[in-house]
Design goal:
The structure is a single chain. The two termini are 22 Å apart. Helix content is 36%, strand content 27%. The chain contains 5 helices and 7 strands; from the N terminus they run ααβββαββββαα. The radius of gyration is 22 Å and the shape is elongated. Helix 2 runs antiparallel to helix 5 (155-175). It folds into 2 domains: 9-40 and 154-175; 46-150, OB fold (Dihydrolipoamide Acetyltransferase, E2P) (Beta Barrel).
């Protein structure tokens, strides 16, 4: 006679290496991509951006090799702001790092744009605020058109669908 399954045994099956671990991980990954897509800042036009000007206090562009691969930590600090302004790793393909390092010095005036929704975090917290564009006078180091295209690419939705379909398909495949 079969004993009824308890909640604990039902949950533990999802993390059993031989049964559903791969399905669980891929489904959770898909759900993470959906969560990320629907909780991120909405950036559709220039109206969704806020332009800031400031004097460069410091900057740091670090590429570090770690146990999980390469990490990129690109930060700029401006006088008058507590926050560090971060160039996300997704934007590094558009960022003219070499030109920035040779042309921008501490004390130079810099113009940057951030998502308007981040305005409430300016000088109110120590949170990093990601940058959508960087300019010094008329020279552009990070193009907001390209970064906004990146933000609106829909990658997270497609990745979420992909991982959910793979996870669910693998689950049913393992059950047969």
């Amino acid at each position: 006679m079969n004993k009824p399954k308890t909640f604990r045994t039902q949950i533990s099956e999802w993390f059993d290496r031989d049964k559903c671990l791969f399905s669980s991980l891929t489904i959770f990954t898909g759900l993470f991509f959906f969560y990320h897509q629907f909780t991120r800042d909405t950036l559709k036009s220039d109206k969704d951006l806020l332009q800031l000007k400031g004097i460069v206090k410091d900057y740091s562009f670090a590429d570090k090799q770690g146990g999980r691969g390469m990490t990129h930590e690109y930060y700029i600090w401006l006088d008058g702001y507590k926050n560090a302004f971060q160039i996300p790793a997704d934007y590094l393909g558009y960022f003219k790092k070499e030109e920035f390092e040779t042309q921008v010095r501490k004390g130079d005036s810099l113009s940057l744009t951030i998502p308007r929704q981040k305005m409430i975090k300016l000088n109110d917290s120590n949170d990093d605020i990601y940058v959508m564009s960087l300019d010094k006078h008329n020279y552009n180091y990070l193009d907001k058109v390209k970064t906004m295209e990146n933000e609106n690419s829909g990658f997270d939705i497609y990745a979420g669908i992909f991982f959910l379909v793979i996870g669910i398909a693998f689950y049913f495949f393992k059950r047969w």
